Amino acid sequence: MRAYLLGAAAAGVVTPAMGDLAGYQFEWAPMVMGVSSCVIVRVYMGLADKSREGWLADLAITALTVLFTVGIVISSRPSLLMALVLGTGLGAIGAGLIGIAEKKTSAVLGEETADDVTGGEVGRSLRRGFRKPVNTRPPDDQIAALIQLDRDRP
Fold first, then answer.
1. Helices 55-76 and 96-109 sit at what angle, rounded to 10 degrees?
2. Nearest to residue 138, comparing CAs of 125, 147, 128?
3. Quick check: 146 pLDDT over 50?
4. In angstroms, rounded to a whole number, what is the distance separating the alpha carbons of residues 79 and 47?
5. How far apart are the first and last CA of the chain?
6. What was the pLDDT predicted at 98?
7. Alpha carbon distance 77, 92 (integer Å)
């Protein structure tokens, strides 16, 4: 009788469904939660934006946020709730991920970021979601100096 009960208890153990992506194992439930919440947030943000001219940039940013979500879910193996929060947060950050990644990369490499060179114009344009072009016209004195250099050339 005792062996029968132990066998029934062992048969009732449920293991999570596992997946494999490029040799990295992950649990399916957190992956579905994270990716779904990320996509839902990006769709909501796209629908809330009244201008339609940036749909291609929004599609690229959505793909980037989904890739970040997949990478974080695979590497950190979060619980269901944490995967939901990660996907929602990454979807909401959107284009800000580019600026975050640029700063982290330049800190590791010890290089200037594009914001250091342009005085923050790149980061502001990314936060706007590529909707408006950045005014990159140099100041008048620099234009005059370049014209003078061009005239002085033999």
1. 60
2. 147
3. yes
4. 29
5. 103
6. 78
7. 21
On whether the CB atoms of residues 106 and 113 are closer than 8 A, the answer is yes
Sign of CA dihedral 37, 41, 46, 50: positive
Strand-pair category, 24-27 with 18-21 = antiparallel
Distance CA 58, CA 33 (A): 21
Contacts with 115 (C-beta within 8 Å, 6 or more apart), sequence order: 99, 102, 121, 122, 123
pLDDT digits (tens, 9 = 90+) for 97-114: 877 777 777 777 766 555
Task: Calculate the dihedral angle through the C-alpha atoms of 95, 98, 101, 104, rounding to the nearest 10 degrees.
Answer: -100
pTM of model > 0.70: no
pLDDT score at 130: 46
Candidate from 3-7, 49-53, 71-75 with smallest mean pLDDT: 3-7
